[in-house]
Design the sequence.
């Protein structure tokens, strides 16, 4: 028995679960593990490192995966590189996807636009997106942070049903187990996009120290901030902030961005030393509130299968009752 949705039908997959295109974290190893388990894996093309992209696309050859980019940071050449490998989807977030719609559709590839509020849903429908992924502010990584998944998904579902019912709806932000997958489907999503939960798997390109810290903290431990964009020299449009672990670096500089800019050289040296040393008190750990539901670093394929099985059980298994976390034997708090 599997959960069938318009998304699983349209993409010919077993489970309505997509792994997020996390910049450099979502490698071919992660994306193919998710696709082989019956979900849809996405490569994290992020800011557009051509060498990384070509390598990971080649490594994923033979397994159907999609590819995501940070729209304001890329150009048509990168999209062409991805399209030449016949991706399952192109997934664009943060910025105007309009200039790429024709290029992507000409190649016969569906476009998913990740957006953060209803005005952006309308814009995605206007430019001709085939699917819209609405991201609530509890999500890991960048977003507007102005809406929550629980209210944004049903509102977006109603809007899409009224305007362009053939467009698929994906939900992102805080979805980490079968309970939240089931909830998102009930709220009107055709599938979910999970980032943090797949970040916390053995196939993700994440360091040992970051994984160890993730298992030890709760959902209280994250904060939206722009301090890592300043120190990394990433020129994000001001409406976007990123959700990260509120470690010593964030506590020191968040709210003191002017001073951070004044001390940028020293802060950069400290930051890059911390990255090299895998010091997660100072280096950025990009995760969402769902980190509180991570109790073990597991196999990405097992995450897909367990999440799907638990959602199926909830949605088809008789009277609703409170269920523990999904993870075998590790549902309690650490
Ligand atoms: C480590 C990390 C990196 C991310 N990088 C990107 C990215 O490069 N492009 C993108 O569209 N979204 C990125 N995201 C956001 C995801 O697409 C997605 O919206 C989010 O992970 C969903 O919320 P969740 O983390 O609670 O599952 C990233 C998320 C994380 C956790």
Sequence:
């Amino acid at each position: 028995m599997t959960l069938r949705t318009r998304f699983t039908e349209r993409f010919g997959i077993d489970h309505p679960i997509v792994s997020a295109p996390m910049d450099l974290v979502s490698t071919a190893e992660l994306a193919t593990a998710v696709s082989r388990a019956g979900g849809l894996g996405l490569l994290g093309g992020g800011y557009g490192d051509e060498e990384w992209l070509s390598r990971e696309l080649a490594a994923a050859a033979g397994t159907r995966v999609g590819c995501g980019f940070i729209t304001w940071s890329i150009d048509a050449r990168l999209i062409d590189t991805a399209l030449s490998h016949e991706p399952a989807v192109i997934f664009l977030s943060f910025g105007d996807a309009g200039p790429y719609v024709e290029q992507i559709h000409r190649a016969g590839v569906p476009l998913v636009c990740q957006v953060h509020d209803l005005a952006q849903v309308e814009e995605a429908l206007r430019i001709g997106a085939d699917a819209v992924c609405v991201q609530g502010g509890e999500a890991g990584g960048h977003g507007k942070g102005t809406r929550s998944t629980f209210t944004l998904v049903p509102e977006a579902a109603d809007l899409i049903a009224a305007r362009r019912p053939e467009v698929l709806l994906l939900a992102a932000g805080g979805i980490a187990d079968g309970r939240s997958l089931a909830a998102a489907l009930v709220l009107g999503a055709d599938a979910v996009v999970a980032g943090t939960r797949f970040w916390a798997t053995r196939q993700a390109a994440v360091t040992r120290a970051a994984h160890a810290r993730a298992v030890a903290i709760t959902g209280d431990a994250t904060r939206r901030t722009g301090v890592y964009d300043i120190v990394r020299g990433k020129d994000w449009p001001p409406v976007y902030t990123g959700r990260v672990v509120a470690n010593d670096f964030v506590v020191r500089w968040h709210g003191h961005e002017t001073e951070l800019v004044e001390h940028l050289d020293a802060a950069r040296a400290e930051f890059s030393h911390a990255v090299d040393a895998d010091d997660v008190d100072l280096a950025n750990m990009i995760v969402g509130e769902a980190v509180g539901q991570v109790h073990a670093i597991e196999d990405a394929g097992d995450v897909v299968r367990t999440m799907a099985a638990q959602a199926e059980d909830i949605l088809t298994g008789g009277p609703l009752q409170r269920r523990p976390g999904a993870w075998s034997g590790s549902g309690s708090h650490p």
